[in-house]
C-alpha cells in the first residue's frame, strides 16, 4: 500500500509540472522533424515540461524535444521506428550488423546514439557508425 501511494504521488507531481500545449507552442523545428520522418502518425498530444516537449502520437510513438527544439529521443512504444534521420554511417552500421532487427528506440547522447531493438538488444553507436557496445535485456 505504501508503494502504491508513493507511485501515485510521483505521477501526480509529474503531472503538475507537465501540461498539454497547443500546436502553436511547439517549436517549428520539432513539427518539421515529425512531419518529415513520421508523416503517417497522428499527433495526439503535446506536453511541455520545463521548456522541453514530448510529442505523443496515436499508436504509441513518442518524440522527446529539448528546449532548443531538437529531438533527443524517439520511442516507438515497442513498435519499429524510422531511423532515416540518423547519419548515413550510423544507418549503414545498424543495417550491416543487425540486418533483420527492428529499431524501436533511439536516444541521442553527447557523442553517440543509444539504440534498442525489438529483440531487446541494446547498442551504442557513435556518430561515425562505430558500434561501441551491445547487450541484451532479459
SSE order and pairing:
Elements: H1 2-17, E1 18-20, H2 28-37, E2 43-49, E3 52-57, E4 62-65, E5 71-75, H3 88-97, E6 103-108, E7 112-117, E8 121-126, E9 131-136
Antiparallel strand pairs: 1-2, 2-3, 3-4, 4-5, 5-6, 6-7, 7-8, 8-9
Domain Putative beta-lactamase-inhibitor-like PepSY-like: 53-132
Organism: Brachyspira aalborgi
Protein name: Putative beta-lactamase-inhibitor-like PepSY-like domain-containing protein
Short structural description:
Keywords: Signal. With 138 residues, the protein is of the alpha+beta class.
Structure explained in plain terms:
The protein is built from 3 helices and 9 strands, in the order H-E-H-E-E-E-E-H-E-E-E-E. The model has no long low-confidence stretch (mean pLDDT 87). The longest helix has 16 residues, at 2-17. The two termini are 28 Å apart. Strand 4 (62-65) and strand 5 (71-75) form a beta hairpin. 26% of the residues lie in helices and 36% in strands. The chain has 2 domains: 1-68, no CATH class; 76-138, Inhibitor of vertebrate lysozyme, Ivy (3-Layer(aba) Sandwich). The protein is globular and about 40 Å long. It has 138 residues and is an alpha+beta fold. Strands 1-2-3-4-5-6-7-8-9 form a 9-stranded antiparallel beta sheet. Pfam families: PepSY_like. Residues 53-132 form the Putative beta-lactamase-inhibitor-like PepSY-like domain. Residues 1-18 form the signal peptide. Keywords: Signal.
Amino acid at each position: 500500500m505504501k508503494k502504491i501511494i508513493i507511485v501515485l504521488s510521483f505521477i501526480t507531481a509529474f503531472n503538475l509540472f507537465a501540461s498539454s500545449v497547443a500546436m502553436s507552442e511547439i517549436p517549428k523545428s520539432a513539427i518539421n522533424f515529425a512531419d518529415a520522418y513520421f508523416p503517417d502518425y497522428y499527433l495526439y498530444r503535446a506536453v511541455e515540461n520545463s521548456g522541453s516537449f514530448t510529442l505523443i502520437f496515436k499508436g504509441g510513438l513518442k518524440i522527446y524535444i529539448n528546449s532548443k527544439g531538437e529531438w533527443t529521443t524517439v520511442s516507438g512504444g515497442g513498435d519499429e521506428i524510422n531511423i532515416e534521420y540518423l547519419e548515413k554511417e550510423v544507418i549503414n552500421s545498424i543495417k550491416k550488423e543487425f540486418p533483420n532487427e527492428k529499431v524501436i528506440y533511439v536516444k541521442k547522447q553527447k557523442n553517440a546514439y543509444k539504440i534498442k531493438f525489438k529483440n531487446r538488444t541494446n547498442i551504442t553507436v557513435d556518430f561515425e557508425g562505430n558500434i561501441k557496445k551491445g547487450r541484451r535485456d532479459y
